[in-house]
């Protein structure tokens, strides 16, 4: 089979990028495949091209609606009538039509939000279709060691098995061995073909700026962004409050519009903020880590972190949004001593016998940053079966003011995450 011809026919590209051809070959042949490549490397093509080359249905699961929407919009131009999307943001009728198209065999690819697979009716309906590839994009979300754990991802392996998918294709930009092992185990990949490429970003330069006071930091960030060629820029803030404040400060200092983006904003406001930044109407966005996956703006010249992020992995992902076009770009980290204290606190907690509490706290932080306050805390705990343990964790979190326990049936210990959430509450 001529993969190059297929690449050109479907996408109009002249050559594969590193790793793509091997991944495509594996998926076309129906082998379980694990694709680990940096953001922007072209992971989507590794399953989109095989899906278009095959004659069965490929399911694609991805954690974010915006990610799926972008991909589907792009594919609809390439393969009209062959690609559809099912998620909670669409009208029910649109979802029904998408499912019907899949059942009728009209589709090659169906993008599905992960929570759909908890609906037995949905899975049962799909089971009548011949499923070729079951794609789990951003597969690190299945791992509790990843920075972006999603409880919904737990169900995907069962769904894929139940639907008798020929192969599972997992892709991620998270390169740690622990996460890879977790993905293979939790998704039940069978002797997967592993495709990994390098993570070096030679066009990025990294700088760490020590700061002492908030005022000095604000001044220095503004100065960095006022330099010629410093924008478009993303400024990552540690909290929503910090995000709104910094956006306001920068707007005043720079004398032009600066937008804030965080999960506390209404969906429309978020979409509008993202659009204005993507289309170049504004050249600086201040955001929490909610502004992340799915942000694919090639010409970002600077990524600023105004505090030290929670992990090296998170830092790599966020800083890596700079310079995707290959031209020189900067990643600047503004670090204050108290940032370190916060992380030392979490690390110590991790080293103590309460590693699990720390882990749950992280996940809660992530859920809150994403605006998901109604996540049952039980879902965030690893050993859900141990009810006493879960109760103890919820109790500790409640005492720290992070969650508010809510009444629930005795077999479900639930907690409601309090908004607004500030991880520092745990430090008190
Ligand atoms: P990832 O998921 O790895 O972050 P994407 O799949 O979103 O990356 O791809 C990033 C960009 O690279 C997209 O705009 C895509 O069209 C482009 N791209 C992917 N493969 C190729 C290729 N072989 N030739 C040219 N452009 C490509
Ligand atoms: Mg991707």
UniProtKB/TrEMBL annotation:
Gene Ontology MF annotations: helicase activity
Domain Helicase ATP-binding as annotated: residue spans: 24-193
Catalysed reaction equations from the record: Couples ATP hydrolysis with the unwinding of duplex DNA by translocating in the 3'-5' direction
EC number: 5.6.2.4
Domain of life: Bacteria
UniProt KW keywords: ATP-binding, DNA-binding, Helicase, Hydrolase, Isomerase, Metal-binding, Nucleotide-binding
Domain Helicase C-terminal: 217-368
Protein family: Belongs to the helicase family. RecQ subfamily.
Protein name: ATP-dependent DNA helicase RecQ
Species of origin: Paraconexibacter antarcticus
Covered range of the whole protein: 1 to 428 of 613
């Amino acid at each position: 089979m001529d993969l190059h011809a297929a690449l050109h026919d479907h996408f109009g590209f002249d050559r594969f990028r590193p790793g793509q051809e091997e991944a495509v070959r594996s998926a076309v042949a129906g082998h379980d495949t694990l694709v680990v490549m940096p953001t922007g490397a072209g992971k989507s093509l590794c399953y989109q091209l095989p899906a278009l080359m095959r004659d069965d249905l490929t399911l694609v699961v991805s954690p974010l609606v915006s990610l799926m929407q972008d991909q589907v919009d792009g594919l609809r131009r390439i393969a009209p009538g062959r690609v559809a999307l099912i998620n909670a943001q669409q009208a029910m009728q649109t979802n029904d039509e998408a499912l019907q198209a899949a059942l009728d065999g009209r589709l090659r690819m169906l993008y599905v939000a992960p929570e759909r697979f908890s609906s037995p009716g949905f899975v049962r309906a799909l089971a009548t279709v011949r499923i070729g590839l079951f794609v789990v994009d951003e597969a690190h979300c299945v791992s509790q060691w990843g920075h972006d754990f999603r409880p919904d991802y737990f169900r995907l392996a069962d769904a894929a098995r139940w639907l008798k998918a020929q192969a599972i294709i997992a892709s991620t930009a998270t390169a740690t061995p622990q996460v890879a092992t977790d993905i293979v185990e939790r998704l039940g990949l069978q002797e997967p073909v592993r495709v990994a490429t390098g993570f070096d970003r030679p066009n990025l330069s990294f700088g760490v700026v020590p700061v002492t006071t908030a005022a000095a930091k604000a001044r220095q960030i503004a100065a960095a962004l006022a330099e010629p060629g410093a924008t478009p820029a993303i400024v990552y803030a540690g909290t929503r409050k910090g995000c709104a404040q910094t956006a306001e400060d920068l707007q005043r200092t720079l004398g032009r519009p600066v937008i804030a983006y965080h999960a506390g904003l209404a969906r429309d406001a978020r979409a509008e903020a993202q659009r204005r930044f993507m289309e170049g109407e504004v050249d600086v966005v201040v955001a929490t880590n909610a502004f992340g996956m799915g942000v694919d703006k090639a010409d970002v010249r600077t990524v600023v972190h105004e505090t030290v992020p929670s992990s090296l992995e998170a830092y790599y992902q966020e800083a890596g949004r700079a310079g995707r076009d290959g031209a020189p770009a900067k990643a600047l980290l503004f670090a204050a001593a108290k940032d370190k204290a916060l992380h030392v606190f979490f690390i110590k907690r991790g080293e103590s016998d309460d590693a699990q509490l720390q882990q749950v706290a992280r996940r809660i932080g992530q859920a809150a940053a994403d605006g998901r306050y109604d996540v049952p805390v039980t879902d965030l705990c690893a050993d859900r079966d141990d009810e006493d343990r879960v109760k103890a964790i919820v109790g500790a979190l409640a005492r720290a003011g992070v969650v508010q326990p809510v009444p629930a049936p005795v077999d479900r210990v639930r907690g409601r995450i309090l908004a607004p959430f500030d991880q520092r509450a745990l430090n008190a």
